[in-house]
Amino acid sequence: MRSSSEVAQCDLVYTFFHPIARDDRTEGFEGMPKPPEVMPVSPTSGRVEGEVKLSVSYRNSTLFIMVMHIKDLVSDDGDPNPYVKTYLLPDPHKTSKRKTKISRKTRNPTFNEMLVYSGYSKESLRQRELQLSVLSAESLRENYYLGGVTLGLQDFDLSKETVGWYKLTAVPYF
User: Fold this and answer.
1) End-to-end C-alpha distance for the chain, whole angstroms
2) pTM of the entire structure?
3) What are the C-alpha distances in Å from 39 to residues 3, 19, 52, 57, 110?
4) Beta bridge partners of 146
5) What pLDDT does residue 40 have?
6) 111 burial level (CB within 10 Å; 0-12, 13-18, 19+)
7) How far is the C-alpha of 109 from the C-alpha of 60, rounded, in Å?
8) What digits encode the pLDDT tens for the residues 2-60?
9) Hey, what's the signal peptide range on this chain (predicted)?
10) CA distances from 86 to 17, 83, 149 (A)
11) Residues 54-108 pLDDT 10s
12) DSSP H or E run through 86
């Protein structure tokens, strides 16, 4: 696309002419600097509310993150289509990205989906953070950010399952 960035990067052009999903667009260009990835904020006047219920457990060199429920999401644009995306940070190549399925038209979704990270020792996990983002999947425009939380895995007792509610905040999106 040789048009202005306003035209080349508009949602309509992306929908029909760009085969790469926007959250993967910075991958694969060796030697070129990656532009900072910016996720559109929810059309909620900057408000972020809600909580996510997670179960975190570890067995046999595998970290299990059960995304159970989210409650009280905010969206002024009708009911969102929420899904959860997680990373184990630091992760410069985005190899730890995991996603749940999309839950349609709800502010209080139930996922009950297990996100699995295999091949990690307890010691290496203690030096990582779990970054969780809640986004709304939109068919005719770019997905938007509803909130997130970053949890230091050193704060968890990995010898047992931990279940809890975590408040979503307006953390910057990576």
Assistant:
1) 25
2) 0.74
3) 22, 18, 20, 29, 23
4) none
5) 52
6) buried
7) 30
8) 566 666 666 555 555 544 444 544 344 344 444 444 455 545 556 899 999 999 999 99
9) none
10) 27, 10, 10
11) 999 999 999 999 999 999 999 888 899 999 999 999 998 999 999 999 999 999 9
12) strand 82-89
Per the structure block, which two tokens stand in for 143?
A: 């997905």
Neighbours of 98 (CB within 10 A): 17
For residue 139, the model assigns a pLDDT of: 87
161: left (phi over 0), alpha (psi -120 to 50) or beta: beta
Angle at 159 between CA 153 and CA 160, to 5 degrees: 95
Tokens representing 2 are 């040789």
Dihedral of CA 12/133/80/116: which sign?
A: positive
